[in-house]
Amino acid sequence: MLGDRAAAHPDRVAVVDGEHRLTYAQLHRNAERMAAGLLALGVTPGDRVVVQLPNRAGFLEVIFGLFRIGALPVFALPAHRETELRHFCVHSDAVALIVPDRHEGFDHRDLAGRVAAAVGPGLRHVLVLGDPGPHTALADVPRDPADLPAGRLPDGPRPGDPAFLQLSGGSTGVPKLIPRTHDDYLYSVRGSNEICGVTDESVYLCALPAAHNFPLSSPGTLGALYAGGRVVMCPAPNPDTAFPLIEREGVTITGVVPPLALAWTEAARDPVTRARLAPLRTLLVGGAKFPEEAARRVAPVLGCDLTQVFGMAEGLVNYTRPGDPQEIVLTSQGRPISPDDEIRIVDDADREVPPGATGHLLTRGPYTIRGYWRAPEHNARSFTADGFYRTGDLVRRLPTGHLVVEGRAKDQINRGGEKIAAAEVENVLLAHPAVHDAQVVAVPDDYLGERSCAYLVLRPAAEPPKPAAVRRFVRERGLAAYKIPDVVRIVESFPETGVGKVSKKDLRVRDEADDEAGD
């Protein structure tokens, strides 16, 4: 795809990274050189490489280089820390880890060193974008394909081959790995472009972390490149950073999560600030349900059209359309990309619910996965016998075919679009010397949609720890910052169901009734 676009319009700008601009020909050449250098290091077709890079042009050069040789990027986020990176490397049998030197004040080189030491010799390379410290500089990897033993790069992967491993939101433990193929992913990208009106004149602002499924393909950076448009890498999504880029680069389309959309609408109430958004035509909001009242602010305040997006890295993506009635755009999360996306809404016994009723969303289709990476037991639970994927979402379907998301069936917290598996955080909390038992639940939050609340039952005679000390303990165990509990409450016991299980539903009700004097 990239080679075809570079041949069609080599001198058109493909990527903007600060003051650095790459044409399609330059991006393609850099990716080819990266592919040659990775091959020379011993990265071969089918190998996995964990990529943890921020919103930089180097992210695209690396992933297209890996695509070219048929090696698989494993997409990590800049927020991930030792626990997650170690799991990704071990579970995927990664041969290399690619990180920035520093990002938002955090030194990823030290992190990568700890991960490499823990994983062992199978992780052969740590490559660093920027100052490498004790590792290898990513800038030293590229080489001329003519210098390879064969004098050129080998043939690339087949369309149906795996392209990369994306991360699931995860309902238990660290995220599972999702294998996406070249053809299924480009099918989704092409469909997203058609719905969102992305053309060679479109300018897409990559405001969310580039490795996220949403800014990668819905329609995302790949959508813009597929259309021959321009990608603008945004180093931080806050209004002070993003708005000047929108004005300077003539950004026409971007995607954000609901908390960010709220921050943007608040900042744009200032007329001078709002004027910077004049080029913006479409704001896509996804990653979590966008409240109706917040959705109603977008067009009047930001001066652009709203498109709601509801999708998952496993496949199915839904959009509201430009021709949809305004009430549908404001109150639903869209309908599927493809006429071949199959949707079932069922009760707990997998029986179809009546039209308009809420139930569990099952889906099967041309770009939805058939199974997670090396997870047979989980696959047996996550897919029906006839191949429908159990999304874990509770939805109802309108007569128009649009879906309205009502919540999550899985025990998972959606904190501003970042998914938190309660079981993973509970496991860390149980390691605290004062904690006898721990339960983590989602509680409503006007800004984030949901926040995390940790309920703790202490060991007998244990000194009650302060909430700040508990949060520090979780942070020091190596979890990402967004997984640290927002609220910590100490209780005598947990409510139970009739069969003796902890009732998280009752814990959520208790949180609504509790004051926050102990936070």
SSE arrangement:
Blueprint: H1 2-8, E1 13-17, E2 20-23, H2 24-41, E3 48-51, H3 57-69, E4 72-75, H4 82-92, E5 96-100, E6 102-103, E7 106-107, H5 108-119, E8 125-129, E9 136-137, E10 162-167, E11 177-181, H6 182-196, E12 203-206, H7 213-217, H8 220-227, E13 230-233, H9 239-249, E14 253-256, H10 258-267, H11 271-275, E15 282-285, H12 292-302, E16 305-311, E17 317-319, H13 326-331, E18 335-336, E19 342-346, E20 359-364, H14 376-382, E21 389-397, E22 403-408, E23 412-415, E24 418-421, H15 422-429, E25 435-445, E26 449-458, H16 467-476, E27 487-490, H17 504-513
Parallel strand pairs: 1-13, 3-4, 3-5, 5-8, 8-9, 12-13, 12-14, 14-15, 15-16, 26-27
Antiparallel strand pairs: 1-2, 6-7, 10-11, 16-17, 17-18, 19-20, 20-21, 21-22, 23-24, 25-26
Helix pairs in contact: 1-2, 2-3, 4-5, 6-8, 10-12
Region (Disordered): 141-163
Organism: Streptomyces alkaliphilus
Family: Belongs to the ATP-dependent AMP-binding enzyme family.
Précis, in short:
One of its GO terms (molecular function) is acid-thiol ligase activity. The chain has 519 residues and is an alpha/beta fold. The chain has 17 helices and 27 strands.
